[in-house]
Amino acid sequence: MASPPPPPQLVQLLSQFPITPKPDPDGPIPPQTSIAATPTPLMLALTPELCNVLHQELAPSPDDDPAFAHCLRQSQLHLDALAAHLRLPAAAAPPPPQQLQLQLPEPGGSSKSSSGKKRARRVAEMVRATNLGLADHLHFRSLVRRARLTFEALRGIYQRQEPSAGARNRADLRASSRMLSAGHWLHRDVRIVGHIPGVLVGDAFYYRAELCVVGLHTAPQAGIGYIPASLVSEGHPVATSIVSSGGYLDDEDTGDVLVYTGSGGRQRNRLDHHADQTLERGNLALHNSYLYGVEVRVIRGHACDTSPNRKVYVYDGLYRAVSSTFGPGKSGRDVCKFKLVRLPGQDDIGSKSWHTAKQLKDTMDAKIRPPRYISLDLSKGKEPFRVPVSNKVDDDRSPLLFEYTVHPEFPVSAVTGPAKRQRGCHCAMDCRSMCRCERKNSGGLLYNEDGTLVMGRPVVFECGALCGCPMTCVNRLTQRGMKHRLEVFRSTETGWGVRTLDLIQPGAFVCEYSGDVIVMDDQSGNVLMEDRSIIDPKRFPERWREWGDASAVDPNDERPQFPEFLGPGYLLDVSQKRNVACYISHSCTPNVFIQFVIRGNEDESCPHLMVFAMETIPPMRELSIDYGV
Questions:
Q1: Angle formed by the axes of helices 48-57 and 66-86, to 10°?
Q2: Which of 296, 379, 523, 574 lies 20 to 30 Å from 97 when distance is taken between CA atoms?
Q3: pTM of the prediction?
Q4: What superfamily would CATH give domain 354-551+565-625?
């Protein structure tokens, strides 16, 4: 796959931005400037040892007033931070900041030389992305999408492998480790403060390892991601991201305000603390982010039954720590607590969008029409789920004027195929490698056990009407209809569009693209197409090549050689009949793609146009496809 052009110079050294500690609310009030000269007081050298002595002197006693004990603990917290700073070696201080522009590195740069020996990686810089235009957003969005596609391809490969005896098959960790060793973690040579270019607020991830691949978080296990002190001109570690899963007793979350408990002092899979937390590593970094006012990326972990690992992680935007306290928590142990407030001017947090989607589904299941919804079901019962239509922009009701068709009606000759092929497989249960239909698909397994597409192909061959297997067969995935709830909505940006009300897994089947079929060799194919809405299936770019492709990490892992496929020999007229797929908007960085599918003995010149998810699509996210325009 050809590498995209290098990204524009759009980031500045963070040291150019003023990083000034907040005044200590418990410290002495600075004296007013006086004209009269005052003698210089005797000053003691501040050392870590002196900080430790003062820390012990400030230890609160059980008889102290609670407010006074709180002030003492705050002073101890500041002393710990100061002692940690004083312990830094002189060599850890970075050179003076340079006034220059810095490029974000291209992914794919290997950490090994051509001779196979590891070379020293350039010391990372701390940067903040600025002044991103529309073209820049599209560029970085494509980089993020490519990294996520590679991760998912590798994860799928490792997931299908048999784990060694006594070992857990952590396919996600193996995939991220492989990408790291190959130099395919995004922004590995820089440490970005603030938004990650190409990652949108509300983006969902099934694995924490994937957060690291795109640069959103820096620690596969730890909840606090931070920049080490050696990369900060002030010599303090600074936190840039946190993962909040509500795993501590003292955590509080109201959406825009989050009380986050620091790390440590808790056994695995336990809510209560068995030991006091300490101000070090991530806790110290997050405390410094509070002191310096550095914004923090917040990723929330949610329980999710439809997720492969029963969890999903959602990026909810930038927050700023407004307080940092240390004292007894609900379990009786001392804990670090940080209050973070969401910065204004961002898109809605993911949890709000998910809540909105759930409310809509519950309301429509109760057959109650929400405000500004012009229809509860565009399909009139033809789809497995209702397809509601909302218009909160104007009075357009045009989707109600078309006849809804779930599947295109192909000519009889196209459905039956040549007479010599009038037979199907005779499997009585799910078809696998010995199935006649399955063997048409070169390149191995067609669908995973969870119903996701293993690899994109020029055409997918499923079992058909003459096969003996039931409709539950794994090789009949697209014939069972939609599995996710979709909504047609009116948008000021794209006109009519489609968004999902469910979380859609990458590689999952979404729906079929349907309309009236116009066969090219028929007389109707020569009729002028004026005043008609025509979809030419051949114009869809071959986005299927990107799905399941891990060759970017390992060039030797090439895709199999597929038989030549001439492509569809028909046009799709959506002027009178159409379905929900016809309202999907165009994008050059789409989240769904078209996969051609042939069922049983159908004519290969008339494949079905099946829509599959290219990435994890969260609820209320608009679907987009590349129409080749």
A1: 170
A2: 296
A3: 0.79
A4: SET domain (2.170.270.10)
